[in-house]
Amino acid sequence: MAKKLIKVGVIGCGGNMQRAHLPRFEADGGIEITCVSDPVKENAEDLLDTWGQEATYYEDYNKMVRGEDMEAIVISSPHSLHYEQARLALQKGCHVCCEKPLTISSRHTKSLIALADKRKCYIQVGYQRHYMPEYQHARQLIRDGAIGEIRGVVGYVTQNWGGARGWRLDPEMSGGGMFMDTGSHLVAVLLWLTGLEPAEVTAFLTNAGKQVDVNTVVSVRFKGSALGTINTFGDASKHDERVAIHGSEGSLVFHLHQWGVKSLLLNDEPVKVPASIKETTPDEVFFEWIRNGGQGYSPPDYALQVSRLSEAVYKAVSGKKPVRVAR
User: What pTM, to 2 d.p., does this model score?
Assistant: First the structure.
């Protein structure tokens, strides 16, 4: 049986939309891009050339959202624009798939979640690790008590931000640097895996000659007794990432390198992920929610936790003292 066709509007036609989302649209086989918006027309032309089908181009996303008929909108734009773009889409009654972070403000994130609920729309956030089998299995192991009560977490991610350019280096557009961008993945997956609620943070950062943070070290006190560190280093040569979750009965340790999972260890022994757990993507799950009437959907409360923690981190750096995480 052919999949139900979903009419999609695209906001932001740059490299991430072209390299990450567009292949997922193609793999779905039931997506019609009806309209696209980007302030740089050449980006839209490149995307549509790759897509191989025509769609209406808008320089102004406001005009696109207000004037076009579509069921869903996929957003990959500068972080500071996410709130307004997603809000317009939800007000129109469109489901929203938005790149991370959902917004750079916890108040705005909370507002979007409430608006989606009011309009009976779905919000998806582009955190890929949530849909990788190793992470899904580890989350279940933690829930099943495999490592006991969580006592501490340690996570870091490295990346070469030396070649970064454009809006990511503009604090007004990005809302922050490496921690707000790539670091958002690390924060989201740690909170999602463990279910821990951050209560207080201290933080240090260096800009390495940029206008935004490149290296950031964060210490976190979670609600209860767990402690942790979350670190992002943008002056490395390439991507490397480790997450260690320590409990009263054992530990789980992830290692990723060059964006792929290299190992998952439970008490220093390799974990075999059940074949029944299949890898998927945020886009695939998003389109499935639309087709099945929202089965399996839950509001992205983890995105609110991410924005609250991120706000506290930048406040702690600015004030040079510990900051309580808003609730």
Answer: 0.96
